[in-house]
Amino acid sequence: MLLLQPACAVWHHRSMLTGTCHCGAIEVHAEDTPDEATVCNCSICRRYAATWLHCTQATVTIIAQPDALDTYCWGDEMINFHRCARCGCLTHYTCTEKAGIDRVSVNLNIVPPEQTTGIRRRRFDGADTWQFLDD
Ligand SMILES: [Zn+2]
Asked: How far is the CA of 37 from the centre of ligand 1 (A)?
């Protein structure tokens, strides 16, 4: 994942999802994205009501205004949840070094609907069985 200031941003990819928080202080760009997203019912995801598009660090770029990123890390400290300090929208999560996973998950709900057609939303039972509920 790249974290850039706006002046540094240059885009070369045409097939890219672009989402923003409500006020626009955080932009998230993802390329070569999967065609499935996850709606999880674990204790934090159900509260956030997020839809996660699991990407890798190399395919996601975050552009954040100075001081726009607030982060929440809890429990086993494997995941940092990032939200806008101004408007409160949850934009993405990153995995900590402790997690050892190359993952940046974008909250698909910050991406305009016209960009997300064809992406299947799957319900995941993160609260209990860790299985998809729609198989
Ligand atoms: Zn915002």
From this structure: 22
